[in-house]
């Protein structure tokens, strides 16, 4: 089981192709930093996801999880046309993601 639960919910949402569940994992002011490009707020995150995450058919498998307040998850990313490793770092606010950084 992946801990903490907001991270698990996000990975489950991506793998299910559930854009609404992905957005619910973030707090109202949540943001995604995708290699230096910031996407702040649910509408911006939805547009980003429809282009490069859920809309691209990405599936995630957590390979390692580290951290106490900020969690770093190394994932195997399977997308149409190939696979690769990415590092996702999550800053949480209670049961919500405040910032997800993708490298």
UniProtKB/TrEMBL annotation:
InterPro entries listed in its UniProt record: NTF2-like_dom_sf (IPR032710), SnoaL-like (IPR037401)
Domain SnoaL-like: 7-84
Coiled-coil zones: none
A Pfam short name: SnoaL_2
Protein name as annotated: SnoaL-like domain-containing protein
Source organism of the structure: Rhodococcoides kroppenstedtii
